[in-house]
Design goal:
It comes from Sphagnum jensenii. InterPro entries: DYW_dom, E_motif, PPR_At4g14850-like_plant, PPR_rpt, TPR-like_helical_dom_sf. It holds the Pfam family DYW_deaminase. Keywords: Repeat. By secondary structure, this protein is mostly helical. The protein folds into four domains: about 1-115, Alpha Horseshoe (Serine Threonine Protein Phosphatase 5, Tetratricopeptide repeat); about 175-270, Serine Threonine Protein Phosphatase 5, Tetratricopeptide repeat (Alpha Horseshoe); about 350-450, Serine Threonine Protein Phosphatase 5, Tetratricopeptide repeat (Alpha Horseshoe), CATH 1.25.40; about 455-580, no CATH class. About 65% of the residues lie in helices and about 5% in strands. Strands 2-1-3-4-5-6 form a six-stranded mixed sheet, covered by helices on one side. The longest helix has 17 residues, at about 480-495. The protein starts with 18 loop residues before the first helix and ends in a 6-residue tail after the last strand. The structure holds one DNA strand.
Length: about 600
DNA sequence: GCCCGGTGTT
């Protein structure tokens, strides 16, 4: 929950305020997202003897929905019935939305069933409510039902369909007679969210080709897509289009730009956007904090957080996640623990599983496995798989077989469909030389039909994304890439590089291990970057998993030998390689 | 005046 703001200034007492001026004041609070203030204003207007009208109820219900505040919503529902406003369709739609957002679908249905008539917004609110509660199938059934009852779906209905089921979304989208910008937004955001950035970008191009103009939300979706596939050049083009559209001062767009530049490897551009924003909210500040965290700039992150506090910016649970994440990446154990303590005591924010996972990782990485385990045991709620997984990751880093086995058992129980647990345990066994048990775990994974994620590395050159997998033979310039790697490996050996085969956790002969190491997707992408971009320019590559340890040490040599900065984004963070060193100081 | 958008963990 965000920190409480100071109460709104009382309206002047000299003049009896009209209902219109109360309502417009209320509307301003709701629009600005100051829902607590809206609630307080509503109480105040009743105290001063002003009777709310249907416009008042719509706005105050909106505030309840967004807080969310179920009990207050129920009490307002009673007042609505007493005032006779419950025949207004706007009020009823707002009630459905409020109940759905507060998680009470039963109440939402009760309102729906007592309404004399429904419009498309009624159906949309109900459909989206079910989607939010994870009832996608029910949402789709409602979508069918509304059509059977002669109600024409609109683009917002389609937003619900996209979020309920991707396959269904595509079918409906193609059969829509008129696709306005809301429908396009839903598709673009839907694809961006599920990691299909290329598809999202392709859709946004198609949208513009069909003459539909992007609005701020569209740009947010497009920037998300760029961030997920790390398409920096494309992101810059979109930034230009944003400036041309006059949306550059939108805080949503600004926060997405910060995130896009940070995730594409350019923290300088992220800072430039943040610095130039005319109006910054908590999210913009938090996006910048997250940018520092993922690039390992811990000191800047802590200073940034301090500035947030000094300037009275709101702090929420996500701000703390970013802050703890900054400590985690830099190994600032004491600072991290101190901030974790202050969350509850100074800010009134209860730590979630995610915060615990972050602190467990912070302790675990630093080798304090026992402290991490104790922390988990003292959690006020039941730890989820993510928390245990953080400890399991630490067991792998520190080669703690005994604890790893025990933790893995819990992880595999809590989240049997996630390949990460199997892979970590199998790697713990392999690192200890126990190939039989390692294979047993992999066999169990296959028996349960859990597929492990294949490692992929990609690089954007001339607006085109080139993707590599281990031993890749598909790339048209693969021979040139191999030649470049051959050339480099001679120089690297002279400079003192020794391939580290412990990172090859397979039971194969050493010769073979070496061969695979030289053909890791990271090295292929770096070599391609070297031969296809001008000398001296930085190379940005991206990997879907954690970067391999041997590739990490090899990249330090390569960056020094070729005199170029190499920036790698792996699944967790950024590594900036320059002059033989990595920004993570080998702590990752 | 109601329904759709941004930041984080693993």
């Amino acid at each position: 929950m965000p920190k409480m703001r100071p109460p709104p200034p009382p309206p002047p007492r000299t003049v009896q305020l009209s209902i219109f001026s109360w309502n417009s004041r209320l509307a301003r609070y709701v629009k600005a997202g100051q829902y607590e203030n809206a609630m307080r204003l509503f109480q105040q207007m009743k105290q001063e003897g002003m009777s709310p009208d249907k416009f008042t109820f719509v706005r105050v219900l909106n505030a309840c929905a967004n807080l969310p505040a179920l009990e207050e919503g129920r009490s307002i529902h009673m007042q609505i019935i007493q005032s006779g406003c419950d025949s207004d369709i706007y009020v009823c739609n707002s009630l459905i939305d409020m109940y759905a957002k507060c998680g009470s679908l039963e109440d939402a249905w009760r309102v729906f069933n007592t309404m004399p008539s429904h419009d498309v917004v009624t159906w949309n609110s109900l459909i989206l409510g079910h989607v939010r509660c994870g009832q996608g199938l029910k949402a789709l059934a409602l979508f069918q039902q509304m059509q059977q009852e002669g109600m024409e779906p609109d683009p917002v209905t389609f937003v619900g369909v996209v979020n309920a089921c991707a396959n269904e979304a595509w079918r409906v989208f193609n059969s829509m007679p008129k696709r306005d910008v809301v429908a396009w937004n839903a598709m673009i955001l839907g694809y961006a969210k599920c990691g299909q950035g290329q598809k999202a970008l392709q859709l946004s191009r198609q949208m513009q080709h069909e003459g539909v103009h992007p609005v701020p939300v569209t740009f947010v979706g497009m920037l998300n897509a760029c961030a997920s596939v790390a398409a920096l050049e494309e992101g810059r083009h979109i930034h230009e289009a944003i400036i041309q559209s006059g949306y550059e001062s939108d805080v949503f767009v600004g926060s997405s730009l910060i995130d896009m530049y940070a995730k594409c490897g350019s923290i300088e551009d992220a800072w430039r956007v943040f610095n130039r924003m005319p109006r910054r909210n908590m999210v913009a500040w938090t996006a910048m904090l997250g940018a520092y965290a993922m690039h390992g700039h811990a000191n800047e992150a802590l200073a940034h957080f301090k500035q947030m506090c000094e300037q009275g910016v709101e702090i929420d649970d996500i701000t703390f996640l970013s802050l703890l994440s900054a400590c985690r990446h830099a190994g600032l154990v004491d600072e991290g623990l101190c901030y974790f303590e202050s969350m509850n005591s100074d800010y009134g924010i209860s730590p979630t599983n995610e915060h615990y996972a972050c602190v467990v990782d912070l302790l675990g990485r630093a080798g304090r496995l026992h402290d991490a385990e104790v922390l988990i045991k003292t959690m006020p709620c039941e730890p989820n798989a993510t928390v245990w997984m953080a400890l399991l990751g630490a067991c792998r880093i520190h080669g703690n077989l005994e604890m790893g086995e025990c933790i893995a058992r819990r992880v595999l129980e809590l989240d049997p469909g996630n390949s990460a647990g199997y892979v970590l345990l199998s790697n713990i066994y392999a690192a200890a030389g126990n190939w039989d048990l390692s294979a047993t775990v992999q066999k169990l994974r296959l028996e349960r039909d859990v597929r492990r994620q294949q490692g992929r590395t990609w690089i954007e050159v001339n607006n085109e994304v080139h993707t590599f997998v281990v031993d890749d033979q598909e790339h048209p310039q693969i021979n040139d890439i191999h030649a470049e790697l051959e050339r480099l490996s001679v120089q690297m050996k002279d400079a003192g590089y020794v391939p580290d085969i412990t990172f090859m956790l397979h039971d194969v002969e050493e010769e073979e291990k070496l061969f695979h190491l030289c053909h890791h997707s990271e090295k292929l992408a770096i070599a391609y970057g070297l031969i296809s971009t001008p000398p001296g320019t930085p190379i940005r590559i991206f990997k879907n998993l954690r970067v391999c340890g041997d590739c990490h040490s090899a990249t330090k040599f390569i960056a020094k030998l070729v005199g170029r900065a190499i920036i790698i984004r792996d699944a967790n963070r950024f590594h900036h390689f320059e002059n033989g060193l990595c920004s993570c100081k080998d702590y990752w």
